[in-house]
Amino acid sequence: MTNLLELYVKLGGLVLVGFILGRKLPVTVPTRLGQFLFWVGVPISIVSFLRQSSLSEQILIAPAFAYLAILLGAFLAWLGIKAQAYFRNIVPQAPTQASLILAAMLGNTGYLGFPITLAMVGKEYFAWALFYDLLGSFPGAYGLGVLLAARFGGGIHNRWQIARPILINPALWGFGFGLIFREVTIPTIVEFCLEKFAWSSVALSLVLIGMRLALLKSWHSLPQAGMSLGIKMLLVPLILGSIVPLFGLTGPIAKIIVLQMAMPPAFATLVIAETFNLDRDLAVTALAAGAIVLLVTLPVWLWLF
Question: Considering the entire predicted model, what is its pTM?
Answer without folding.
Answer: 0.89
